[in-house]
Design brief:
Elements (H helix, E strand, L loop, with lengths): L1 H6 L21 H18 L5 H6 L1 H4 L21 H8 L3 E10 L4 E12 L5 E4 L1 H12 L7 E7 L5 E11 L4 E6 L20 E6 L7 E15 L4 E8 L11 E3 L5 E14 L4 E12 L1 H4 L10
Antiparallel strand pairs: 1-2, 1-4, 2-3, 3-6, 4-5, 5-6, 7-8, 7-10, 8-9, 9-12, 10-11, 11-12
Length: about 300
């Protein structure tokens, strides 16, 4: 009888422990994005000045070459090293989906959908993304172009809260970053803690929302730090190259260090092929990100923007 117990233990001893509610462990982010349609429709009904054409008309009034906020409003770097699981738990609170809200005149229907990513900088609604994510707003605004079908932009957090874009405050086309303002709508956004420039070889994580994905978490290292100066234009591009995976739609998403601090923004990839001219036989890709110091330099306590 003893042998039988040893060879054939009760099923309960090795039974799979199922979560009490699996739906709490698997997130339905596509449903959240769909829910943004109703949220944006309600917001624009109550705030007609929030439509994108209104933002375009005042785009130059909001832009500045000076400070956009107070440095003291940024969250100081965390000093405690975290497990990858805890980096994710911390980072997902400040990682955001960047979305577009459009109106189909023929179908007389509104639709919200995801286009890129972003990250929270301050609780009152200052966020960062890539220049190329919002460049169409600037260019159409500068040239006075309206589009009744392109009605709004918004950010959305991991809980499905929607924060409409209200202004573009600062941009750097060379280094591909932008600081934007959103309407918190009564929510206190969770800003990322700001880290130092990571050393080559340091572990980093990407927590962004690539195409067909939401709040995707990948790990890698800093593979290089480069700069390229255009002497004729007097500009310098700084690039933090990493190996953590990301793809289209992750643009503007946060790059985090082992402490969960924000150290960069997703920007672009450069693919290398053995036959580069015909783009055949893929070999590797450079993952190019924006060092966060370029963004945080626009925050100062000397002459803060009101």
């Amino acid at each position: 009888m003893l042998l039988a117990v040893i060879l054939f233990p009760t099923a309960g001893a090795f039974a799979y422990e199922r979560a009490t509610d699996p739906d709490d462990q698997f997130y339905d982010f596509p449903a959240m994005v769909e829910g943004a349609t109703a949220s944006m429709r309600e917001y624009l009904k109550d705030n007609p000045d929030g439509v994108l054409d209104s933002i375009r008309h005042r785009v130059l009034d909001n832009l500045t070459d000076g400070p956009v906020g107070r440095a003291s409003d940024l969250q100081k770097a965390a000093r405690k090293k975290l497990s990858p699981q805890d980096v994710y738990k911390k980072g997902r609170r400040s990682s955001l989906i960047f979305g577009r809200f459009v109106h189909n005149n023929e179908m007389k229907a509104d639709t919200a959908y995801k286009t890129a990513s972003a990250v929270v900088l301050t609780p009152d609604g200052l966020c960062a993304t890539n220049y190329h994510v919002i460049s169409d707003i600037l260019l159409t605004g500068i040239f006075g172009k309206d589009d009744s079908t392109d009605t709004g932009r918004f950010l959305m957090d991991c809980d499905g809260n929607v924060f409409p874009l209200t202004a573009v405050l600062a941009t750097d086309p060379v280094n591909d970053w932008a600081i934007i303002r959103v309407d918190p709508r009564g929510h206190a956004l969770t800003p990322a803690t700001i880290g130092a420039l990571p050393e080559i070889g340091s572990t980093v994580y990407c927590l962004a929302s690539p195409s067909q994905g939401h709040f995707n978490f990948t790990q890698g290292i800093v593979s290089n730090r480069t700069r390229a100066t255009d002497k004729r234009k007097g500009t310098t591009r700084y690039t933090l190259e990493i190996t953590a995976d990301y793809g289209g739609g992750a643009s503007g998403g946060p790059i985090l260090d082992e402490y969960g601090n924000l150290v960069g923004l997703v920007s672009s990839t450069v693919s290398i092929y053995s036959d580069q001219q015909n783009m055949r036989n893929f070999q590797m890709a450079y993952k190019q990100t924006v060092p966060i110091f370029l963004v945080t330099e626009r925050f100062t306590d000397d002459n803060p923007r009101k």
